[in-house]
Design a protein that fits this description.
The protein is built from 15 helices and 21 strands. The chain has 476 residues and is an alpha/beta fold. Helix 3 packs across helix 4 and helix 3 packs antiparallel against helix 6. The mean pLDDT is 98. The chain binds nicotinamide-adenine-dinucleotide.
Length: 476
Protein backbone atom coordinates (compact mmCIF):
# COMPACT_ATOMS: atom_id res chain seq x y z
CA UNK A 1 0.00 0.00 0.00
CA UNK A 2 1.31 3.41 -0.99
CA UNK A 3 1.34 6.18 1.62
CA UNK A 4 0.55 9.66 0.33
CA UNK A 5 1.41 12.19 2.98
CA UNK A 6 2.39 15.38 1.22
CA UNK A 7 0.59 18.52 0.23
CA UNK A 8 1.89 21.21 -2.10
CA UNK A 9 2.01 24.63 -0.47
CA UNK A 10 4.08 27.65 -1.49
CA UNK A 11 6.08 25.67 -4.05
CA UNK A 12 7.08 22.94 -1.59
CA UNK A 13 5.98 19.44 -0.75
CA UNK A 14 4.99 19.61 2.91
CA UNK A 15 3.66 17.22 5.54
CA UNK A 16 0.03 18.02 6.33
CA UNK A 17 -0.86 19.61 9.64
CA UNK A 18 -3.93 17.38 9.44
CA UNK A 19 -3.39 13.99 11.05
CA UNK A 20 -6.36 12.04 9.70
CA UNK A 21 -5.64 9.13 7.37
CA UNK A 22 -8.02 7.46 4.92
CA UNK A 23 -7.44 4.19 3.07
CA UNK A 24 -8.52 3.42 -0.47
CA UNK A 25 -8.64 0.25 -2.55
CA UNK A 26 -8.06 -0.42 -6.24
CA UNK A 27 -11.64 -0.34 -7.62
CA UNK A 28 -10.91 -3.09 -10.18
CA UNK A 29 -9.49 -5.63 -7.73
CA UNK A 30 -10.46 -4.52 -4.23
CA UNK A 31 -6.76 -4.71 -3.21
CA UNK A 32 -5.57 -2.04 -0.77
CA UNK A 33 -3.99 0.79 -2.76
CA UNK A 34 -3.34 3.97 -0.79
CA UNK A 35 -3.20 5.40 2.68
CA UNK A 36 -3.71 9.15 2.48
CA UNK A 37 -2.91 11.76 5.09
CA UNK A 38 -5.46 14.52 4.68
CA UNK A 39 -5.17 18.29 4.81
CA UNK A 40 -7.18 20.10 7.47
CA UNK A 41 -8.32 23.69 8.02
CA UNK A 42 -4.83 24.84 9.05
CA UNK A 43 -3.37 23.46 5.82
CA UNK A 44 -6.06 25.29 3.87
CA UNK A 45 -5.18 28.52 5.68
CA UNK A 46 -1.48 28.08 4.84
CA UNK A 47 -2.27 27.43 1.21
CA UNK A 48 -4.54 30.48 1.05
CA UNK A 49 -1.82 32.67 2.62
CA UNK A 50 0.71 31.43 0.03
CA UNK A 51 -1.69 32.10 -2.84
CA UNK A 52 -2.46 35.55 -1.45
CA UNK A 53 1.25 36.41 -1.24
CA UNK A 54 1.83 35.24 -4.82
CA UNK A 55 -1.13 37.18 -6.22
CA UNK A 56 0.39 40.67 -6.71
CA UNK A 57 3.21 39.34 -8.88
CA UNK A 58 0.98 37.07 -10.97
CA UNK A 59 -1.77 39.63 -11.49
CA UNK A 60 0.87 42.20 -12.45
CA UNK A 61 2.63 39.88 -14.89
CA UNK A 62 2.40 40.47 -18.63
CA UNK A 63 0.28 38.51 -21.03
CA UNK A 64 3.46 37.03 -22.53
CA UNK A 65 4.71 35.89 -19.14
CA UNK A 66 1.47 34.12 -18.40
CA UNK A 67 1.42 32.56 -21.87
CA UNK A 68 4.91 31.23 -21.18
CA UNK A 69 3.76 29.85 -17.81
CA UNK A 70 0.84 28.06 -19.47
CA UNK A 71 3.14 26.57 -22.08
CA UNK A 72 5.43 25.22 -19.38
CA UNK A 73 2.49 23.69 -17.51
CA UNK A 74 1.29 22.11 -20.74
CA UNK A 75 4.69 20.60 -21.49
CA UNK A 76 5.12 19.29 -17.95
CA UNK A 77 1.76 17.50 -17.99
CA UNK A 78 2.29 16.20 -21.52
CA UNK A 79 5.64 14.70 -20.56
CA UNK A 80 4.05 12.78 -17.70
CA UNK A 81 1.28 11.24 -19.79
CA UNK A 82 2.29 7.65 -19.08
CA UNK A 83 2.56 8.11 -15.29
CA UNK A 84 -0.76 9.94 -15.21
CA UNK A 85 -2.54 7.20 -17.15
CA UNK A 86 -1.14 4.48 -14.88
CA UNK A 87 -2.25 6.25 -11.70
CA UNK A 88 -5.75 6.87 -13.06
CA UNK A 89 -6.15 3.25 -14.17
CA UNK A 90 -5.14 2.02 -10.71
CA UNK A 91 -6.97 4.51 -8.56
CA UNK A 92 -10.06 5.36 -10.60
CA UNK A 93 -10.42 2.43 -13.00
CA UNK A 94 -11.52 4.51 -16.00
CA UNK A 95 -11.30 2.51 -19.25
CA UNK A 96 -8.05 3.11 -21.14
CA UNK A 97 -9.62 5.27 -23.88
CA UNK A 98 -11.41 7.49 -21.34
CA UNK A 99 -8.31 7.73 -19.19
CA UNK A 100 -6.08 8.63 -22.11
CA UNK A 101 -8.62 11.23 -23.26
CA UNK A 102 -8.78 12.77 -19.79
CA UNK A 103 -5.00 13.02 -19.55
CA UNK A 104 -4.68 14.60 -22.99
CA UNK A 105 -7.52 17.02 -22.27
CA UNK A 106 -5.77 18.03 -19.05
CA UNK A 107 -2.57 18.95 -20.87
CA UNK A 108 -4.48 20.58 -23.73
CA UNK A 109 -6.38 22.85 -21.37
CA UNK A 110 -3.16 24.82 -20.75
CA UNK A 111 -2.57 25.16 -24.50
CA UNK A 112 -6.16 26.27 -25.08
CA UNK A 113 -5.92 28.85 -22.29
CA UNK A 114 -2.67 30.15 -23.77
CA UNK A 115 -4.36 30.65 -27.14
CA UNK A 116 -7.32 32.41 -25.55
CA UNK A 117 -5.03 34.67 -23.60
CA UNK A 118 -3.13 35.57 -26.77
CA UNK A 119 -6.27 37.02 -28.35
CA UNK A 120 -8.18 38.32 -25.34
CA UNK A 121 -9.02 42.02 -25.03
CA UNK A 122 -8.45 42.95 -21.41
CA UNK A 123 -9.27 46.61 -22.10
CA UNK A 124 -12.32 47.81 -24.02
CA UNK A 125 -13.74 51.23 -24.77
CA UNK A 126 -17.45 51.44 -23.92
CA UNK A 127 -18.77 54.93 -24.60
CA UNK A 128 -16.58 57.27 -22.60
CA UNK A 129 -15.47 54.53 -20.23
CA UNK A 130 -12.35 52.45 -20.42
CA UNK A 131 -13.35 49.05 -19.16
CA UNK A 132 -10.63 46.84 -17.89
CA UNK A 133 -11.10 43.12 -17.15
CA UNK A 134 -9.27 42.48 -13.89
CA UNK A 135 -8.49 39.24 -12.07
CA UNK A 136 -10.33 38.41 -8.88
CA UNK A 137 -7.61 37.35 -6.45
CA UNK A 138 -7.18 33.92 -4.88
CA UNK A 139 -9.35 31.28 -6.52
CA UNK A 140 -10.43 28.14 -4.64
CA UNK A 141 -10.74 25.24 -7.07
CA UNK A 142 -12.70 22.31 -5.66
CA UNK A 143 -12.91 19.20 -7.83
CA UNK A 144 -14.52 15.70 -7.88
CA UNK A 145 -13.04 12.26 -8.52
CA UNK A 146 -14.47 11.35 -11.91
CA UNK A 147 -11.96 13.17 -14.13
CA UNK A 148 -9.49 14.49 -11.60
CA UNK A 149 -6.75 15.67 -13.96
CA UNK A 150 -8.91 17.54 -16.43
CA UNK A 151 -10.87 19.35 -13.72
CA UNK A 152 -7.72 20.47 -11.92
CA UNK A 153 -5.88 21.51 -15.08
CA UNK A 154 -8.92 23.11 -16.74
CA UNK A 155 -9.62 25.33 -13.75
CA UNK A 156 -5.96 26.10 -13.02
CA UNK A 157 -5.31 27.07 -16.64
CA UNK A 158 -8.09 29.67 -16.60
CA UNK A 159 -7.13 31.01 -13.18
CA UNK A 160 -3.55 31.58 -14.31
CA UNK A 161 -4.60 33.02 -17.67
CA UNK A 162 -6.73 35.55 -15.79
CA UNK A 163 -3.94 36.43 -13.33
CA UNK A 164 -5.50 34.74 -10.29
CA UNK A 165 -3.56 32.41 -8.01
CA UNK A 166 -5.09 29.15 -6.84
CA UNK A 167 -5.74 26.85 -3.94
CA UNK A 168 -6.82 23.51 -5.34
CA UNK A 169 -8.80 21.05 -3.21
CA UNK A 170 -9.14 17.83 -5.21
CA UNK A 171 -11.26 14.91 -4.11
CA UNK A 172 -9.80 12.87 -1.31
CA UNK A 173 -10.55 9.84 -3.49
CA UNK A 174 -8.05 10.95 -6.16
CA UNK A 175 -5.03 11.43 -3.91
CA UNK A 176 -2.67 9.20 -5.88
CA UNK A 177 -3.54 10.79 -9.21
CA UNK A 178 -3.20 14.21 -7.63
CA UNK A 179 0.23 13.32 -6.22
CA UNK A 180 1.48 12.36 -9.69
CA UNK A 181 -0.02 15.47 -11.27
CA UNK A 182 1.40 17.73 -8.56
CA UNK A 183 4.89 16.37 -9.18
CA UNK A 184 4.55 17.22 -12.88
CA UNK A 185 3.09 20.69 -12.33
CA UNK A 186 5.93 21.42 -9.89
CA UNK A 187 8.43 20.69 -12.65
CA UNK A 188 7.00 23.61 -14.63
CA UNK A 189 8.90 25.83 -12.14
CA UNK A 190 6.24 28.42 -11.29
CA UNK A 191 6.87 30.98 -8.55
CA UNK A 192 5.93 29.65 -5.07
CA UNK A 193 2.29 30.05 -4.12
CA UNK A 194 0.86 30.55 -7.63
CA UNK A 195 -0.89 27.23 -7.18
CA UNK A 196 -1.22 25.13 -4.06
CA UNK A 197 -2.74 21.66 -3.84
CA UNK A 198 -4.29 20.34 -0.66
CA UNK A 199 -6.01 16.97 -0.77
CA UNK A 200 -8.38 16.76 2.14
CA UNK A 201 -11.99 16.21 3.05
CA UNK A 202 -14.65 18.57 1.79
CA UNK A 203 -16.12 19.35 5.18
CA UNK A 204 -12.71 20.40 6.58
CA UNK A 205 -10.20 21.68 4.01
CA UNK A 206 -12.91 22.40 1.42
CA UNK A 207 -15.17 24.23 3.85
CA UNK A 208 -12.26 26.40 5.02
CA UNK A 209 -11.66 27.57 1.45
CA UNK A 210 -15.33 28.45 1.15
CA UNK A 211 -15.29 30.32 4.47
CA UNK A 212 -11.99 32.17 4.21
CA UNK A 213 -12.22 35.92 3.51
CA UNK A 214 -9.00 35.92 1.44
CA UNK A 215 -10.52 33.67 -1.21
CA UNK A 216 -12.29 35.71 -3.88
CA UNK A 217 -13.77 32.99 -6.02
CA UNK A 218 -14.77 29.35 -5.87
CA UNK A 219 -14.87 27.21 -8.97
CA UNK A 220 -16.51 23.95 -7.98
CA UNK A 221 -17.33 20.78 -9.86
CA UNK A 222 -19.28 18.13 -8.00
CA UNK A 223 -22.69 17.19 -6.73
CA UNK A 224 -25.65 19.53 -6.64
CA UNK A 225 -26.03 19.04 -2.86
CA UNK A 226 -22.48 20.18 -2.14
CA UNK A 227 -22.76 22.95 -4.75
CA UNK A 228 -25.72 24.40 -2.84
CA UNK A 229 -23.76 24.28 0.44
CA UNK A 230 -20.86 26.07 -1.24
CA UNK A 231 -23.11 28.76 -2.69
CA UNK A 232 -24.65 29.35 0.73
CA UNK A 233 -21.23 29.55 2.38
CA UNK A 234 -19.68 31.73 -0.31
CA UNK A 235 -22.28 34.46 -0.05
CA UNK A 236 -21.04 35.38 3.45
CA UNK A 237 -17.91 36.94 1.93
CA UNK A 238 -19.57 37.52 -1.46
CA UNK A 239 -17.22 35.18 -3.28
CA UNK A 240 -17.83 34.74 -6.97
CA UNK A 241 -18.91 31.17 -7.67
CA UNK A 242 -18.88 28.91 -10.67
CA UNK A 243 -20.74 25.68 -9.99
CA UNK A 244 -20.63 22.71 -12.35
CA UNK A 245 -23.09 20.23 -10.88
CA UNK A 246 -25.09 17.18 -11.78
CA UNK A 247 -27.36 16.28 -14.66
CA UNK A 248 -30.08 13.95 -15.91
CA UNK A 249 -29.64 14.68 -19.56
CA UNK A 250 -32.15 13.71 -22.24
CA UNK A 251 -31.27 12.03 -25.52
CA UNK A 252 -34.11 12.72 -27.93
CA UNK A 253 -34.47 10.24 -30.79
CA UNK A 254 -36.86 11.86 -33.26
CA UNK A 255 -39.00 9.52 -35.31
CA UNK A 256 -37.17 10.30 -38.57
CA UNK A 257 -33.77 9.35 -37.10
CA UNK A 258 -31.78 6.39 -38.35
CA UNK A 259 -31.97 4.37 -35.13
CA UNK A 260 -29.24 1.92 -36.25
CA UNK A 261 -26.79 4.80 -36.55
CA UNK A 262 -28.05 6.80 -33.60
CA UNK A 263 -28.24 4.05 -30.98
CA UNK A 264 -24.48 3.38 -30.60
CA UNK A 265 -24.04 7.14 -30.06
CA UNK A 266 -26.96 7.30 -27.60
CA UNK A 267 -25.52 4.37 -25.63
CA UNK A 268 -22.07 5.95 -25.67
CA UNK A 269 -23.63 9.18 -24.36
CA UNK A 270 -25.29 7.21 -21.55
CA UNK A 271 -22.13 5.37 -20.57
CA UNK A 272 -19.27 7.88 -21.03
CA UNK A 273 -16.66 7.34 -18.34
CA UNK A 274 -18.39 4.14 -17.14
CA UNK A 275 -21.54 6.22 -16.61
CA UNK A 276 -19.78 8.33 -13.97
CA UNK A 277 -20.21 11.47 -16.03
CA UNK A 278 -22.21 14.58 -15.28
CA UNK A 279 -23.10 14.98 -18.95
CA UNK A 280 -24.35 11.41 -19.41
CA UNK A 281 -27.50 11.12 -21.54
CA UNK A 282 -29.38 8.84 -19.16
CA UNK A 283 -32.94 9.45 -20.33
CA UNK A 284 -33.56 8.11 -23.83
CA UNK A 285 -36.73 9.65 -25.28
CA UNK A 286 -38.18 7.61 -28.14
CA UNK A 287 -41.36 7.93 -30.24
CA UNK A 288 -44.03 5.50 -29.08
CA UNK A 289 -44.60 4.09 -32.58
CA UNK A 290 -40.91 3.13 -32.84
CA UNK A 291 -40.53 1.96 -29.23
CA UNK A 292 -39.99 -1.72 -30.08
CA UNK A 293 -37.15 -0.87 -32.46
CA UNK A 294 -35.56 1.39 -29.87
CA UNK A 295 -35.82 -1.22 -27.11
CA UNK A 296 -34.29 -3.94 -29.26
CA UNK A 297 -31.40 -1.78 -30.44
CA UNK A 298 -30.69 -0.24 -27.03
CA UNK A 299 -30.61 -3.65 -25.36
CA UNK A 300 -28.36 -5.09 -28.06
CA UNK A 301 -25.97 -2.14 -27.99
CA UNK A 302 -25.73 -2.02 -24.18
CA UNK A 303 -25.12 -5.80 -24.03
CA UNK A 304 -22.22 -5.43 -26.44
CA UNK A 305 -20.27 -3.10 -24.12
CA UNK A 306 -17.37 -4.93 -22.54
CA UNK A 307 -17.20 -4.52 -18.78
CA UNK A 308 -13.96 -5.28 -16.99
CA UNK A 309 -10.26 -4.54 -16.68
CA UNK A 310 -9.76 -0.87 -17.52
CA UNK A 311 -6.33 -1.70 -19.01
CA UNK A 312 -7.92 -3.86 -21.70
CA UNK A 313 -8.37 -1.54 -24.73
CA UNK A 314 -11.66 -3.31 -25.56
CA UNK A 315 -13.20 -2.39 -22.18
CA UNK A 316 -15.92 0.24 -22.36
CA UNK A 317 -17.13 0.12 -18.74
CA UNK A 318 -14.68 0.00 -15.85
CA UNK A 319 -15.50 -0.41 -12.16
CA UNK A 320 -17.37 2.18 -10.13
CA UNK A 321 -14.87 4.33 -8.24
CA UNK A 322 -15.76 2.98 -4.79
CA UNK A 323 -17.87 0.44 -2.99
CA UNK A 324 -20.16 3.29 -2.01
CA UNK A 325 -20.69 4.32 -5.62
CA UNK A 326 -21.34 0.66 -6.51
CA UNK A 327 -24.01 0.50 -3.82
CA UNK A 328 -25.58 3.72 -5.09
CA UNK A 329 -25.99 2.19 -8.55
CA UNK A 330 -27.45 -1.02 -7.04
CA UNK A 331 -29.89 1.10 -5.04
CA UNK A 332 -31.19 2.78 -8.18
CA UNK A 333 -31.48 -0.49 -10.12
CA UNK A 334 -33.57 -1.91 -7.25
CA UNK A 335 -35.63 1.27 -7.18
CA UNK A 336 -36.29 1.00 -10.92
CA UNK A 337 -37.61 -2.53 -10.47
CA UNK A 338 -39.74 -1.52 -7.49
CA UNK A 339 -41.16 1.41 -9.43
CA UNK A 340 -42.31 -0.98 -12.15
CA UNK A 341 -39.84 -0.21 -14.93
CA UNK A 342 -39.16 -3.03 -17.39
CA UNK A 343 -35.62 -4.42 -17.15
CA UNK A 344 -34.28 -5.02 -20.67
CA UNK A 345 -30.65 -5.86 -19.84
CA UNK A 346 -28.41 -5.76 -16.78
CA UNK A 347 -29.84 -5.62 -13.30
CA UNK A 348 -28.52 -5.94 -9.78
CA UNK A 349 -25.23 -7.60 -8.81
CA UNK A 350 -21.84 -7.98 -10.42
CA UNK A 351 -21.10 -9.39 -13.86
CA UNK A 352 -19.86 -12.98 -13.74
CA UNK A 353 -16.12 -13.30 -13.18
CA UNK A 354 -15.78 -9.72 -11.95
CA UNK A 355 -16.76 -10.24 -8.33
CA UNK A 356 -13.62 -8.70 -6.79
CA UNK A 357 -14.00 -5.15 -8.13
CA UNK A 358 -16.79 -2.58 -8.03
CA UNK A 359 -18.22 -3.70 -11.36
CA UNK A 360 -21.87 -3.19 -12.24
CA UNK A 361 -24.03 -4.66 -14.99
CA UNK A 362 -24.82 -2.03 -17.65
CA UNK A 363 -28.56 -1.70 -17.38
CA UNK A 364 -31.40 -0.55 -19.62
CA UNK A 365 -34.88 0.06 -18.30
CA UNK A 366 -37.88 0.56 -20.58
CA UNK A 367 -41.42 1.54 -19.67
CA UNK A 368 -40.01 4.35 -17.54
CA UNK A 369 -42.17 7.27 -16.60
CA UNK A 370 -40.44 10.61 -16.26
CA UNK A 371 -41.75 10.91 -12.71
CA UNK A 372 -39.85 7.82 -11.49
CA UNK A 373 -36.75 8.31 -9.34
CA UNK A 374 -34.57 6.61 -11.99
CA UNK A 375 -35.68 9.30 -14.45
CA UNK A 376 -35.25 12.23 -12.08
CA UNK A 377 -32.15 11.53 -10.00
CA UNK A 378 -28.56 11.33 -11.11
CA UNK A 379 -27.38 7.72 -10.74
CA UNK A 380 -23.76 8.19 -11.91
CA UNK A 381 -23.45 4.70 -13.35
CA UNK A 382 -24.31 2.91 -16.64
CA UNK A 383 -28.08 2.84 -16.19
CA UNK A 384 -30.32 4.07 -19.01
CA UNK A 385 -34.05 4.80 -18.83
CA UNK A 386 -36.16 4.62 -21.99
CA UNK A 387 -39.16 6.95 -21.93
CA UNK A 388 -41.68 7.13 -24.77
CA UNK A 389 -43.38 10.20 -26.20
CA UNK A 390 -46.18 10.74 -28.74
CA UNK A 391 -45.35 14.06 -30.39
CA UNK A 392 -42.32 16.29 -30.87
CA UNK A 393 -43.87 18.79 -28.44
CA UNK A 394 -44.21 16.10 -25.83
CA UNK A 395 -40.58 15.04 -26.39
CA UNK A 396 -39.44 18.60 -25.66
CA UNK A 397 -41.75 18.82 -22.65
CA UNK A 398 -40.35 15.60 -21.15
CA UNK A 399 -36.77 16.61 -21.98
CA UNK A 400 -37.31 19.83 -20.03
CA UNK A 401 -39.22 18.22 -17.17
CA UNK A 402 -36.17 17.88 -14.93
CA UNK A 403 -34.48 19.80 -12.12
CA UNK A 404 -31.30 19.80 -14.19
CA UNK A 405 -30.19 21.40 -17.46
CA UNK A 406 -26.61 20.45 -18.19
CA UNK A 407 -26.68 18.65 -21.50
CA UNK A 408 -28.91 17.18 -24.21
CA UNK A 409 -28.55 15.05 -27.32
CA UNK A 410 -30.84 15.17 -30.35
CA UNK A 411 -30.92 12.75 -33.29
CA UNK A 412 -32.98 13.31 -36.43
CA UNK A 413 -32.80 12.66 -40.18
CA UNK A 414 -33.78 16.29 -40.72
CA UNK A 415 -31.13 18.67 -39.49
CA UNK A 416 -33.47 21.67 -39.41
CA UNK A 417 -35.89 19.73 -37.22
CA UNK A 418 -33.05 18.57 -34.97
CA UNK A 419 -31.92 22.16 -34.52
CA UNK A 420 -35.48 23.30 -33.82
CA UNK A 421 -35.77 20.75 -31.03
CA UNK A 422 -32.25 21.57 -29.76
CA UNK A 423 -33.20 25.23 -29.48
CA UNK A 424 -36.18 24.36 -27.26
CA UNK A 425 -34.29 22.22 -24.76
CA UNK A 426 -33.15 23.98 -21.61
CA UNK A 427 -29.54 22.82 -21.37
CA UNK A 428 -26.11 24.38 -21.37
CA UNK A 429 -25.02 22.20 -24.28
CA UNK A 430 -26.81 20.24 -26.96
CA UNK A 431 -25.15 17.73 -29.29
CA UNK A 432 -26.98 17.30 -32.60
CA UNK A 433 -26.56 14.02 -34.52
CA UNK A 434 -23.21 13.15 -32.98
CA UNK A 435 -20.81 13.39 -30.05
CA UNK A 436 -18.35 16.28 -30.01
CA UNK A 437 -15.47 17.78 -28.10
CA UNK A 438 -15.05 21.54 -28.45
CA UNK A 439 -12.81 23.09 -25.81
CA UNK A 440 -13.83 26.63 -26.79
CA UNK A 441 -17.55 26.01 -26.26
CA UNK A 442 -18.94 27.08 -22.87
CA UNK A 443 -19.69 24.26 -20.47
CA UNK A 444 -22.16 24.44 -17.61
CA UNK A 445 -25.78 24.10 -16.81
CA UNK A 446 -29.14 25.74 -16.41
CA UNK A 447 -31.22 25.31 -13.26
CA UNK A 448 -29.77 22.91 -10.66
CA UNK A 449 -26.94 21.86 -12.97
CA UNK A 450 -25.05 24.89 -11.82
CA UNK A 451 -24.10 28.50 -12.12
CA UNK A 452 -21.84 30.12 -14.68
CA UNK A 453 -19.78 28.53 -17.41
CA UNK A 454 -16.34 27.05 -17.86
CA UNK A 455 -14.12 26.76 -20.96
CA UNK A 456 -13.43 29.21 -23.73
CA UNK A 457 -13.99 32.95 -23.38
CA UNK A 458 -16.91 32.40 -21.01
CA UNK A 459 -14.69 30.30 -18.78
CA UNK A 460 -11.90 32.87 -18.78
CA UNK A 461 -14.30 35.69 -17.99
CA UNK A 462 -15.58 33.74 -14.99
CA UNK A 463 -12.21 34.63 -13.39
CA UNK A 464 -12.34 38.30 -14.39
CA UNK A 465 -14.42 41.27 -13.36
CA UNK A 466 -15.02 44.49 -15.31
CA UNK A 467 -13.71 47.70 -13.87
CA UNK A 468 -14.78 50.94 -15.58
CA UNK A 469 -12.58 54.03 -15.53
CA UNK A 470 -14.05 57.32 -16.69
CA UNK A 471 -12.07 60.52 -17.01
CA UNK A 472 -8.91 58.60 -17.69
CA UNK A 473 -7.74 61.36 -20.04
CA UNK A 474 -8.88 64.22 -17.82
CA UNK A 475 -6.40 66.50 -16.10
CA UNK A 476 -7.40 68.99 -13.44
P1 LIG B 1 -18.99 15.88 -4.24
O1 LIG B 1 -19.90 17.01 -4.43
O2 LIG B 1 -19.23 14.93 -3.15
O3 LIG B 1 -17.49 16.40 -4.01
C1 LIG B 1 -16.85 17.26 -4.93
C2 LIG B 1 -15.72 17.99 -4.22
O4 LIG B 1 -16.26 18.85 -3.22
C3 LIG B 1 -14.74 17.07 -3.49
O5 LIG B 1 -13.44 17.60 -3.60
C4 LIG B 1 -15.24 17.16 -2.05
O6 LIG B 1 -14.26 16.84 -1.10
C5 LIG B 1 -15.64 18.61 -1.97
N1 LIG B 1 -16.59 18.96 -0.90
C6 LIG B 1 -17.51 18.16 -0.32
N2 LIG B 1 -18.18 18.85 0.63
C7 LIG B 1 -17.68 20.11 0.64
C8 LIG B 1 -17.96 21.29 1.39
N3 LIG B 1 -18.90 21.30 2.32
N4 LIG B 1 -17.25 22.40 1.13
C9 LIG B 1 -16.30 22.41 0.18
N5 LIG B 1 -15.99 21.33 -0.55
C10 LIG B 1 -16.67 20.19 -0.34
O7 LIG B 1 -18.96 15.16 -5.65
P2 LIG B 1 -18.20 13.84 -6.07
O8 LIG B 1 -18.92 12.69 -5.44
O9 LIG B 1 -16.73 13.98 -5.85
O10 LIG B 1 -18.44 13.85 -7.66
C11 LIG B 1 -19.60 13.39 -8.26
C12 LIG B 1 -20.56 14.50 -8.56
O11 LIG B 1 -19.93 15.50 -9.33
C13 LIG B 1 -21.75 14.07 -9.37
O12 LIG B 1 -22.95 14.52 -8.78
C14 LIG B 1 -21.57 14.73 -10.72
O13 LIG B 1 -22.71 15.04 -11.41
C15 LIG B 1 -20.78 15.92 -10.39
N6 LIG B 1 -19.99 16.33 -11.55
C16 LIG B 1 -20.35 17.46 -12.26
C17 LIG B 1 -19.64 17.83 -13.37
C18 LIG B 1 -20.00 19.06 -14.17
O14 LIG B 1 -19.13 19.59 -14.83
N7 LIG B 1 -21.21 19.53 -14.14
C19 LIG B 1 -18.57 17.09 -13.78
C20 LIG B 1 -18.23 15.96 -13.06
C21 LIG B 1 -18.95 15.61 -11.93
Amino acid sequence: MKTIDHLYINGEFVTPHGSEFMEFANPSTGAPLTRVRLADETDAQRAIAAAKAAYPALSGSSREQRMDTLQRLHDAVREGEHELIEAMLDEYGGPLATTTGTVRRAAASFAVAKELLAGYDFVRQLGSARVQMVPLGVAGLVTPWNANYSFICGKLAMAIASGSTAVIKPSEMSAMQTAVLTGLLHRAGLPPGVFNIITGRGDTAGAEIVRHPDVAKISFTGSTAVGKAIARGAVETMKRVTLELGGKSPTVLLDDANFEKAMPLAIAAATFNSGQACLAGTRLLVPLHRLDDAKRLAAAEMSRLKVGDPRDPATRIGPMVSRRQWERVQHYIRLGLEEGAELLVGGEGKPQGLEAGNFVRPTVFANVHNGMAIAREEIFGPVLSIISYRTEEEAVQIANDTDYGLHAYVFSGDVARANRVASQIVAGRVFVNGLYDEPLAPFGGFRQSGLGREFGIHGLEAYLEPKAIMGYETTL
